[in-house]
User: Fold these one by one.
Assistant:
Number 1:
Amino acid sequence: MSVVDACNTYTFEVRILILVFGLVLSATAQDVYRISNGKLTVTVKKQGGAIVSITLDDDKQHRNPLWEPDSGTFGASLGHFVCVDGFGGVSKEEQAAGYPFHGEAYTQPFLGQAAGAEMRLNTTLPLAQETVARNLTLLPGRAVLQVDTTLTSQVSFDRPVQWAEHATVGSPFLEPGATVIDMRAVKAKTRPYVPATGGLPHRLPSGQEFTWPLAPSVGGAQLDMRLTPEQPNSGDHTTSLMDPAREWAWVTALNTKQHLMIGYLFRREEFPWIQSWEYYPPSGKLARGLEFSTQPFDVPRRQVVSENSLFGAPTYRWLPAKSAITARFYVFVANVPENWRKVDDVRFENGTITVVSAAGSLTF
């Protein structure tokens, strides 16, 4: 969720400013929707439809793993927002026509209602000529949020669409030396970039392929991309291809000191890629994107279509004329045992989510 072009021609600062545009940090009763089922409470901003908070109801500290930037630094809290139809930069012609970075959805009001454990929202994308319907449901008696989204075209021709669920975890949940990211990936690559002065330094070289989780560093050593640096001072961006042998892909973030975990489960056919955006300033106010998407990097549509594929996997999704496409994902949150240091697998069978660690398993 949220944010900066760590690589390529965009700087981290530019991306942050674009992504926070038009959103307000404070969440009052007038500008948010809220649902709860006795296990989880979820808060969504009306402007942009961002999931800004997801907390366990029995957690007295109300710890929110999603990104909550300081208002003085970023001006907004974005948490998890949807990037559609667009993800990343735009062409000069699109820019002249007023098309926004990361698509229109995060700039539009989401209208609807929230009652009990269910939320029904929708918005219109006037420039893209599409509509977005977003249904959020907290499953009964479970610390699980189900999100169903329908994207509908209002035009009479097929089009390639860009769609990313820009989930971002942040401090204090994202903690130096404590928070680890796990996923089932088969191939990975660092985001190509043009070296520039200013901004956070890169730990990773431009455009290098690697096998998750060990990536080459600019100094030649290997870095474990699961780990949050103990002494943060970098900004990087990588993409990982989800295992094509599995119907459901997953990613988790686990704080091994707080013993708190958040995870996402999504269909690999709908979102083949996870983009890991890292914002690790020396201040320790960290953010990391767990962005599951239709494309490997946040780049303009024209580039995505021209490249067509990476590692044999598609880089965009088709939206047929006057038709709709859908996507579903799940979010789960839990306190985990103190001896958990890693998530080895997430399984989805008969509607049950099982998170597996060498130290045991949890069922949602």
Note: Residues 12-363 form a domain with the Beta-galactosidase; Chain A, domain 5 fold (CATH 2.70.98.10).
Number 2:
Amino acid sequence: MRILVRLGLAAFVLAWIFGPYALRSAVPIWLPFLIALGLELNFFVAGLRPMQPSRPDRGPQDADRERYGYGDDADELLLVREGDEEVWIPYSGEADEEPSALDLSPAAPDRGEPRRVSRHVRRFATGLALVCVLAIVFWIVERNTGWNGLNASTRAEAAARFSEEASRVARKPVTIRCDEAGNYVGAVQHADGVAAVGGELAYLTPERCLDLYRLAYKGEVEFNRTGRALAVLAHEAWHLRGVSDEGITECYAFQSGVQLGERLGLSTDTARRMMRRQVAENARLARASPAYGVPSECRDGGSLDLNPGVADFP
């Protein structure tokens, strides 16, 4: 079982690194590492539990009773060892001498338990070492292939392109920066982007910047991730434009995301379908974050419709 888990982890990590973009976008890489670590800990703890020793019946067996005619009173029988054989003999205690073949030597100490624990410790260390090696391999590859893997001039060129597109939405010059250090977004803010309302600067996570880069410069599209990246960039641009309400900002972002996607290389139909998916996802995500739920007027012909003369929405 342990070998299969380790082989499966190694195979998945290699497939995640060198496989299709859809796999990398659908499954977070930390998930299989977390599962593998949990299984290794489970194997280790289970292996440390003391084994329940089996206690065989040392009394005469049915075959012995039939062969030697022993009765049911096992207290009148003695176990005598003769070489490698064990024989039960009747004994009433009347003789002055004890049976010479009776083996009364103390049992040898059980040395199996320390060896068993040491074996499980070695197995756990091996599994943990494998997880660490795979994590290091992933870190090295991701460092050279993710957003941080792009050279500085390419990142600067892409960020300038994102800033240009955001400026069109904000209707003023603004700057988009990709937060490589993780000081403003991501795990810090539990958000994909952040911007000061009415300001001139916004931050996006490197993951969203990479999705936008792959669309604009490589033509690589993963429907949900690409749509989310467009919506995030448009969302922060609307904050920079001066809209503070999160629900209204989302509504405007979904609509602006269509034109934004077109300018970055999508067809009108694909960009519109992406933003419609984002509208549908908003209804689900709003249950956890009600402030981000789009208002009821975010619809075709509603008061938040940016293009009331156009039938398609967003």
Note: Residues 124 and 248 are 52 Å apart (CA to CA).
Number 3:
Amino acid sequence: MVVALLIISSSAMAQPTHSGDWTLPTDLNQVGKAAVQGYKQPIELSAVNFLDENEVLYKRVVWRRIELKEKINQKFYYPTVATPSRQSLASVLFEAMQTVSVYGDDYGDEAQSGPNFKGTPFEGAYTLIAYKDDDFTKPYHNIEDIPIFTSRTSLTGITDSLGRQTYDTLRIEPRDVLSYMLKEIWFFDAKRSVWDVRIVGICPEYRIKKNIGERPYENYEQNVWFYFPQARYYLCNKTCYNPHNDLEMWSYDDVFLMRMFNSYIVKEDNIQDRMISEYARGIDAILESERIKKDLIDYETQLWEY
């Protein structure tokens, strides 16, 4: 009888639960929980309200780029074709946007009903919403409007009889994502007395070829942003390759929390809202990126007194 009860209870826990209508949170710093049973939940981080000056004495907002051509970052790029056990990071994000049709015409900034996960393993959880900006104030209303799912200009040019180059329009595939942009908030939490960081946004970047006159150049496309605390519900349930031990399974959420990637800073919050590339080139841009990184490290060391 005891064995039978255990089997019945375990099977009941594996079923996802149903929940009511989903509403867009008014404060994106307040992250809710997914009402999903039988699936992993993201690790709870310390609750930090970045608007509360009594708890956060200092903060810096930076943007950094993860280049997938670097060896340590290749775990985000492969496999280029999804397998039953593993998917690339871009494939996970693309699939999350297409899990259900959540971008109906009735979905707006003040929507009271909309995204749900009926018929999926994540029923009752947050839906991964795509935004046009890194402030997460302008969501895409229809999935067909998202540039990733429309078309792109191919990187392979075709030369016609007059010597002019034209480019085909193709659908973006996960293998076309060659880098990611992260938006981070570094802050000093007075309640815990720690200098900490939170990733608040992630943007898959792909490159297209454009022409300035007769001179072609490659350009980063940054037109789809995801609120990272929402994306964590998907990332913690997707396996990332561990090059050190096949028995130790990592999730993409684990990799980001442990910061097991290499990146460089491309922007810090500034009065002119400029990227580093807009006022520095070559070695000067590298030095500027390292200066910002050093300032973040020095702030923590200067907090100590002996």
Note: Helices lie at 2-13, 89-98, 228-235, 252-257, 283-301.
Number 4:
Amino acid sequence: MESRQLFNKQVEQKCLISNQKIDPNISPFIKSRLDIITSAIEYKEFLQLITDQHIQLHGFTVDYLILDGDTLAKEDRRKKQKDVGYCIQGGPDFVNPRITYAICNHRNMWHFGVLTKENNDWHKHNNKPYSFSNSIGLVIAKTLVSIAAKGNKEYKLLDACCGVGTVILEACIAGFKIHGCDINVKAYYNAVRNIEHYKYSANIYHKDIKEHNQKYDAAIIDLPYNLYSKSTDGIAQNIIESTSKLATRLIIVSIAEIEPMIVKAGLKIIDFGIVIKRGKSTLTRKIWVTEKS
């Protein structure tokens, strides 16, 4: 689902070529991005094309990306890294490089470019001070943010039922602008404390979403589970309809079947998926990507 929403295509062989320049840090699944500078089928021509770039830089390093189907032995990969390094004018830095270049072989074609790797600091949120046993996991939260914004960090996001702020934390660390809202006073205070603990900046409101009047590019709704927060079909319908007045794009999460509510709110379903959180109890969540008709 994330691949469809970010790139309008499915990932094949754990690799995807696209003109969309997505920051790997917004996704729990994207491990790196190679900004391709030059490509060639023949290896000698490939090295010459890199040399022809006349790159002059001190403090670089060259990595080798191993993609599915690449069976090149380790010693051969190391040799090719050196080959490429000699095409660059300057001294390498293998400890604290200013820039990381990389090469890879994809479908019998060599590619060379600038490599951006993910930063996995977001895993520290597993130890947030305030949590809720049935709240969504970090991977789902991070994915909801990337899907809602479609990778665009200029989007202004809203977490309409923010709970303890799991989604907000993932938005903040990835560099998105987000607000949160929750009618439950305990959830509100815990969300504020979690945000303050990590020294992030995000506006969080303690109010019914129907009383909120700011506008957003996209909103995420993780509907109450009727466990610690009371929920009925009427409450869920109110949340969906009220949030749809604030944003044109809504990502809705529910443990119940709510498609009739989505349609009633005047929203068009453009994508759908199911995720299962396993633990002491198995909780299946349905995710709808919707936009105003």
Note: The longest helix spans residues 74-86.
